[in-house]
Amino acid sequence: MEKKIKVLNLYAGVGGNRKLWENVEVTAIEYDENIAATYKHFFPNDEVIVCDAHKYLVEHYKEFDFIWASPPCQSHSRIRFMNQTQNKPIYPDMKLYQEILFLKHYFKGLWVVENVKGFYEPLIVPQTIGSHYYWSNYKIPVKIERESRKHNGTIAEKEKRKGFDLSNINGIDKQQVLRNCVEPEMGLYVFECSGKQKQYSLNNFKKQMDND
Question: Looking at the 3D structure of the chain, how many domains does it have?
């Protein structure tokens, strides 16, 4: 039996990036208890831990083969920055770059950190797909000009596109959770590019994205 890949999924949300992964043993870290419970509803076999992902990473990184981090993006967002009439200026959260540097220099496995394009020139050069940045220690070879997270549409439309039925879920902001949800096909494609998984071809990924 093929050995499962041990994956750390930081800032997991409801698991959009993880949805299409196979042959994995996932530990998901989510700070919000209700969102963590929603993740567990969809992925009952994953270990879900409610805690600070930033702290968990530095304490447990050696236990995994692959690490994915999608830290909060609001303080880096161009949209938030441009809408200063409604949004009070805040410091960009530099935990993003702390995690990139930490993974780059200490983690021996494969890793990726995903975030939005910021309102400033990135301090560490990323790879770019659509309106999102990806920092990793492997190449994501095809720059598909699609969104990593599609924000348009109603809750029902997002649920259908992303494959998460939240109709019986309570205690979460469904619109925000779905906005934050990485497109499952993108999550699989980025994971596959690491060489860790091969069950989904690039041509199938392109076809799926073109049909959206």
Answer: 1
Q: Whose CA is closest to 191, among 160, 151, 148, 145?
A: 148
* Cα–Cα distance measured from residue 64 to residue 110, given in angstroms and rounded to the nearest whole number: 9
pLDDT at 212 over 50: no
CB-CB neighbours of 204 under 10 Å: 13
CB–CB of 204/198 below 8 Å? Answer: no
In terms of average pLDDT, the best of 50-54, 69-73, 122-126, 141-145 is 50-54
Are the CB atoms for 64 and 108 separated by under 8 Å? no
The domain that contains 199 carries what CATH number? Answer: 3.40.50
Residue 102: CB atoms within 10 Å: 18
pTM of the model: 0.86
Residue 129 backbone dihedrals phi, psi, to 5 degrees: -135, 115
132-136 and 127-129: which strand pairing? antiparallel
Name residue, tokens 């992964």: 21
| Token digits of residue 31 | 């700070």
What range does the domain containing 175 cover?
5-210
Rounded-to-integer distance, Cα 210 and Cα 180, Å: 21
| Tens digits of residue pLDDT in 8-27 | 999 999 999 999 999 999 99
- β partners of residue 8: 27, 67
Residue pair 38/178 in contact by the 8 Å Cβ criterion: no
8-state DSSP, 62: G
